[in-house]
């Protein structure tokens, strides 16, 4: 997980990453207190396979307890966005960032009652 950039939008920190660390994303606060995270991955299936494989290797090499295979429900968080880029990370990042900063002339639209 490599930080591409971060910015403050309407008082909230927004961080853009290339790649994903599932453990960090799973622990990200669901109340928005740590801002927004955007992750850009080349292949979602590849990332999940890597996560599951690494967990199995860690049980052997580092004598760690085997974690369950990744479950998408573990990332039930409105403050985490994951985009599959299929190798077009720069273009996807640029488009998403520009959209966030210019959407309808307002940087960020909050739905009343939801924060």
Q: Number of helix segments?
A: 3
How many strands, which pairing sense, and closed or not: the largest β-sheet?
4 strands, mixed
Instruction: Kindly state the number of beta strands.
Output: 4
Structural class: alpha/beta
Fraction of residues in H or I helices: 25-40%
- The rough form would be described as globular
The overall pLDDT, averaged over residues, is: 84
Beta-strand percentage range: 15-25%
- What is the CA-based Rg, rounded? 16 Å
End-to-end distance? 26 Å
Order of the strands making up the biggest sheet: 1-2-3-4
Order of helices and strands: EEHEHEH
Domain count, please report it.
1
Overview of this structure, please?
The protein has one domain (2-105). The chain has three helices and four strands, in the order E-E-H-E-H-E-H. Strands 1-2-3-4 form a four-stranded mixed sheet, with helices on one face. The protein is α/β, with parallel strands linked by helices. It is globular, with a radius of gyration of 16 Å.
Topology:
Blueprint: E1 2-9, E2 12-18, H1 22-27, E3 36-41, H2 44-61, E4 80-84, H3 89-102
Parallel strand pairs: 2-3, 3-4
Antiparallel strand pairs: 1-2
């Amino acid at each position: 997980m490599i930080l591409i950039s971060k910015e403050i939008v309407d008082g909230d920190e927004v961080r853009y990453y290339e790649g994903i660390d599932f453990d960090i994303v799973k622990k990200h606060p669901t109340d928005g207190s740590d801002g927004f995270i955007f992750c850009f991955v080349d292949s979602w299936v590849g990332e999940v396979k890597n996560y599951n494989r690494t967990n199995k290797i860690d049980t052997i090499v580092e004598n760690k307890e085997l974690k369950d295979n990744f479950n998408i429900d573990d990332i039930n968080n409105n403050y985490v966005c994951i985009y599959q880029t299929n190798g077009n990370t720069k273009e996807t990042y640029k488009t998403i960032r520009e959209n966030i900063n210019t959407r309808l002339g307002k940087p960020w639209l909050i739905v009343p009652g939801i924060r």
